[in-house]
Design goal:
It is a single chain. By secondary structure, the protein is mostly helical. About 60% of the residues lie in helices and about 5% in strands. The protein has 14 helices and 4 strands. The strands form 2 sheets. Strands 1-2 form a two-stranded antiparallel ribbon. Strands 3-4 form a two-stranded antiparallel ribbon. The chain is globular, with a radius of gyration of 22 Å. The two termini are about 30 Å apart.
Length: about 425
């Protein structure tokens, strides 16, 4: 990535400088700052989602190749803060119960729009080729559904329709598919190549139903904003009776456990397991995260950045300002300075290792879907090394937990063995 969302190698130095000079901190201060970071991250996700929505409005008003590229870049930018929010998902049920409407994947895209004739969908999914864009009614099993008016509510209601988790109608990946279309390159170079004329007016329209495709894109964007607005308020210090108040009213031990469990579970079961190991072992591009746009390397990197943020108490905001405060690193350092150095070193190494996926994509044009290809020994090794680094990081998270008195952390493995 380039510009304001570039990788920030100086954060580790900043973390050491901040922590070395800070006064003694309490567990309660660390948990409260955790809530501050969560609020900032979700607020930034909301800001970038609104920017995406404005870009969609401008494009749909006068479709053009340049406008389409602007929308796609706005989508990529919107992923940066959102992916850093996923560390709050594990350990905080309010986030975990909510996130599926925004980030569920992989999805059977034939539910939404046209797909290639050789489209491979989840076996048994009766909604896999419903094509909402092309139809005013759809039939899934014995049920006939009215979809003439595409609204945020309709899209939300269609998630997992027919009982299939692959029927994802809303969220970042539904929008991603509408912008890029299917990636038909397999493990070869290249992302989806949807033409901007799929949203054009009149005779310039390609693949039919351009107006409805635009309506779907807009409705999905509106729903994304509504969902993020709700979650931002859950972490706001100015709101009453929200999740932040519930978190801070609980014991600080419980707050620290949520922090550490979230970090460990994202690091191990989700990022190393579901998002890397599954795709690598199956050599499956269907199991990569941002599969239509080939933005997976950045999603992985910013997931890792989110873990790093929580440990160091640092978060670089969308406007470039740095939010800093009492951290887990400081708590560990107060108990065992040498262990704190070793744990911080492991975090820095893991973050650098995940960063190599970004370098591979941007410098070598070897994206995640190419790295996991059968026969790509060098690419497979890079992904494997990243998995190993995440496993080692998780061990350091458990070590940190033990040092500050949080025992039996048991981060979620998502049933993977490492």
């Amino acid at each position: 990535m380039t510009g304001k969302f570039a990788i920030i190698p100086s954060l580790a130095v900043t973390a050491f400088a901040f922590n070395a000079s800070a006064a003694t901190v309490t567990q309660e201060q660390v948990v409260e700052h955790y809530a501050d970071i969560a609020h900032a991250v979700f607020a930034d996700a909301l800001v970038t989602a609104k920017t995406l929505d404005q870009s969609i409005d401008q494009f749909l008003a006068a479709p053009s190749a340049k406008g389409f590229e602007d929308v796609k870049q706005a989508w990529i930018d919107s992923r940066v803060p959102y992916q850093q929010s996923e560390v709050f998902r594990f350990g905080n049920a309010i986030v975990d119960d909510w996130e599926g409407q925004l980030n569920a994947w992989p999805l059977d895209e034939g539910l939404i729009d046209y797909v290639a004739a050789d489209y491979q969908h989840e076996l048994g999914n009766e909604g896999a080729s419903a094509n909402i864009v092309a139809n005013s009614t759809i039939q899934i099993g014995s049920e006939v559904l009215e979809v003439k008016e595409i609204t945020p509510k309709l899209i939300a209601d269609l998630n997992e329709v027919g009982g299939s988790e692959a029927n994802v109608a809303s969220g970042y990946h539904a929008i991603e598919f509408l912008l890029w279309g299917q990636d038909l390159n397999g493990t070869n170079a290249g992302a989806g190549q949807r033409a901007y004329t799929d949203f054009a007016k009149g005779s310039a329209c390609t693949n039919g139903n351009c107006d409805r495709r635009g309506e779907y894109l807009k409705a999905a964007s509106q729903l994304l904003i509504q969902d993020l607005e709700w979650m931002e308020k859950q972490w706001s210090a100015s709101e009453k009776n929200n999740y932040r108040q519930e978190l801070l009213a609980d014991s600080s031990d419980q707050g620290l456990r949520k922090m550490l469990f979230g970090m460990g579970s994202l690091s191990l079961g989700e990022l190393a397991g579901e998002r890397m190991k599954v795709a690598l072992e199956a050599n499956s591009t269907e199991d990569e995260h941002d599969c239509f746009s080939d933005n997976t390397h950045n999603s992985h990197y910013y997931n890792e950045q989110g873990i790093y943020n929580v440990y160091t108490g640092l978060y670089k905001r969308e406007d470039g300002t740095l939010l800093s405060g009492p951290s887990l690193h400081q708590l560990v350092k107060q108990k065992d300075p040498q262990a704190a150095k070793e744990i911080q070193k492991q975090f820095d190494q893991t973050r650098s290792q995940v960063g190599l996926l970004v370098s591979s994509a941007e410098k070598n044009n070897q994206h995640f879907d190419q790295l996991i290809a059968s026969g790509n020994a060098q690419g497979n090794a890079l992904v494997n090394e990243t998995i190993f680094a995440l496993v080692a990081q998780t061990a350091s998270i458990e070590r940190a937990a033990g040092i500050i008195g949080i025992d039996s952390l048991n981060p979620d493995t998502a049933d993977h063995e490492f």
